[in-house]
């Protein structure tokens, strides 16, 4: 299945879709799965509680956000792929972050959780047929295809990888 078209998702997600380079979900898996896991597992322990400015998330909080968002995006993809037509709500990333309490987690445990979630997501995305990738559902009151969600998943992580590289490391 080719890259999603602009009509396959809400414009809010355009940056994420454009950031994920590849012509198919299979290419995204090849291009990014190992790269993203390697990047996260090699984040320096000394930066775990670092925030580049007052009021900004720490590296641990950002990593938790990436984990939470990937779980939500994957859940949306699964529901829509299985032809569940129930409209799915949005989520408030700041509320999730405020209630995640990463202070009780080690940096290593967050890295391991990220890798586990990524592996689970990759297996889910690999399982989707062409027909399932074309399924259309509703999230945050907007139409979206499963294929677009796959690109958003990778684009979202790549977006935060770039922020980590530019502002945290």
* Gyration radius, rounded: 16 Å
Structural class of the helices, strands and pairings? mainly alpha
Assembly type of the chains comes to: single chain
| The CATH topology | Four Helix Bundle (Hemerythrin (Met), subunit A)
Individual helix count? 7
- Along the chain, the helix and strand elements come as HHHHHHEEH
Distance between the termini: 36 Å
How much of the sequence lies in strands comes to under 5%
Largest sheet: 2 strands, antiparallel
Write down the CATH class.
Answer: Mainly Alpha
How many discrete structural domains?
1
Strand order of the largest sheet: 1-2
Characterise the protein shown here.
The structure is a single chain. The protein is mostly helical and 169 residues long. The protein has one domain: dinb family like domain (Four Helix Bundle (Hemerythrin (Met), subunit A), Up-down Bundle), CATH 1.20.120. It has seven helices and two strands, in the order ααααααββα. It has helices at residues 14-19, 25-41, 59-81, 93-98, 107-127, 130-134, 146-168, and strands spanning 136-139, 142-145. The chain has a two-stranded antiparallel sheet with strand order 1-2. A hairpin with a 2-residue loop joins strand 1 (136-139) and strand 2 (142-145). The radius of gyration is 16 Å and the shape is globular. The mean pLDDT is 97.
């Amino acid at each position: 299945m080719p890259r999603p078209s602009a009509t396959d998702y809400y414009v809010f997600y355009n940056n994420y879709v454009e950031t994920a380079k590849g012509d198919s979900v299979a290419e995204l898996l090849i291009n990014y799965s190992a790269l993203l896991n390697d990047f996260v597992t090699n984040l320096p322990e000394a930066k775990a509680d670092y925030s580049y400015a007052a009021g900004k998330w720490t590296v641990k909080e950002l990593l938790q956000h990436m984990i939470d968002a990937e779980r939500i995006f994957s859940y949306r993809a699964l529901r829509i792929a299985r032809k569940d037509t129930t409209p799915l709500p949005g989520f408030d990333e700041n509320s999730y972050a405020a209630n995640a309490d990463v202070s009780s987690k080690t940096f290593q445990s967050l890295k391991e959780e990220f890798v586990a979630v990524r592996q689970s997501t990759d297996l889910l995305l690999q399982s989707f047929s062409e027909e399932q990738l074309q399924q259309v559902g509703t999230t945050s009151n907007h139409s979206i295809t499963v294929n677009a969600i796959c690109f958003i998943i990778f684009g979202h992580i790549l977006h935060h990888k770039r922020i980590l590289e530019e502002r945290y490391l």
